[in-house]
From TrEMBL:
Enzyme nomenclature, EC number: 2.1.1.193
Family the UniProt entry places it in: Belongs to the RNA methyltransferase RsmE family.
Name listed for the protein in its UniProt record: Ribosomal RNA small subunit methyltransferase E
Subcellular location: Cytoplasm
UniProt keyword annotation of Kinase present: no
Record's keyword annotation contains Magnesium: no
Function: Specifically methylates the N3 position of the uracil ring of uridine 1498 (m3U1498) in 16S rRNA. Acts on the fully assembled 30S ribosomal subunit.
Organism from which the protein derives: Trichlorobacter lovleyi (strain ATCC BAA-1151 / DSM 17278 / SZ)
Catalysed reactions, semicolon-separated: uridine(1498) in 16S rRNA + S-adenosyl-L-methionine = N(3)-methyluridine(1498) in 16S rRNA + S-adenosyl-L-homocysteine + H(+)
GO biological processes: rRNA base methylation
Domain Ribosomal RNA small subunit methyltransferase E PUA-like: 22-55
Positions of the Ribosomal RNA small subunit methyltransferase E methyltransferase domain: 80-243
Length: 249
């Protein structure tokens, strides 16, 4: 099973034991990977089911896959679902967080306009940026052969982003001010949570009022030590640490 190419599929695209692809996904399968009839693949739908299949037909416009077996999501152990709550940084840094975070296994990106965020997004500009962010995570999920694709959400403030993670069992706020607890101490001896939320500010970090909003929703202020990391480095470092402890790294 491990040698099969993996692709994300919508359950709506599966009919009568077949799945079909067109557009960019077809191009990737047929032109980039050069898959041909008879090649074995694995398709993962939005419910976590894994469909084993064989390429049945490749035309100029679409690729058809004949499904041979479906494995329910309950047959596979789950790693924690990780939400990265990221204050919008300058330039293309958010794109790095999205791409590399997807490769590391982030389940959801919750991007918010922080008090110290320099970019001001609204209206069509915001919608266009969200569409681009979704394309980035889709491509990164495909490249890394993930079993799923992360979601991307936008929030107008830190308080709204904090409230959106209310159901997380472990909530971490990377906060270098005050008296934060070393991350190592917080994680030591803790049982594996089902959902983890990690909040990171933009350049310059959080304003005190934003940190208070996260604390109100149960976030624990933590530190990675004496070094102050760039916002994009902090997001990826935190993700890698919790994935190493409880995930699939």
């Amino acid at each position: 099973m491990s040698g099969r190419r993996r692709f994300i599929v919508s359950s709506r695209s599966i009919r009568d034991g077949y799945a079909s692809y067109d557009g960019p996904q077809h191009h990737h399968m047929a032109r980039v990977l050069r898959l041909r009839s008879g090649d074995e693949v694995m398709l993962i739908d939005e419910q976590g089911r894994r469909h084993l299949g064989v390429i049945d037909q490749v035309t100029q416009e679409w690729t058809a896959v004949r499904l041979t077996e479906t494995l329910e999501a309950s047959q596979f152990p789950d790693a924690p679902a990780i939400t990265v709550i990221q204050g919008l940084p300058k330039g293309e840094k958010i794109e790095l967080v999205l791409q590399k975070g997807t490769e590391l296994g982030v389940s959801e990106f919750s991007i918010f306009r922080a008090d110290r965020s320099v970019p001001k997004l609204a209206g069509d500009k915001l919608q266009g940026r969200i569409e681009r962010w979704n394309r980035i995570v889709a491509e990164a999920a495909r490249q890394s052969e993930r079993f799923d694709q992360p979601t991307v959400a936008w929030h107008p403030s830190a308080a709204a982003a904090a409230a959106g993670a209310a159901n997380a069992e472990l909530k971490l706020l990377l906060w270098e001010r005050g008296a934060p607890t070393p991350l190592r101490e917080v994680l030591e001896g803790m049982p594996r949570p089902a959902r983890i939320a990690i909040a990171i500010g933009p350049e310059g970090g959080f304003e005190p009022g934003e940190a208070e909003a996260f604390s109100f929703w149960g976030f624990t202020p933590v530190t990675l030590g004496e070094r102050i990391l760039r916002t994009e480095t902090a997001a990826l470092a935190m993700t890698a640490i919790v994935q190493y402890k409880w995930g699939d790294i």
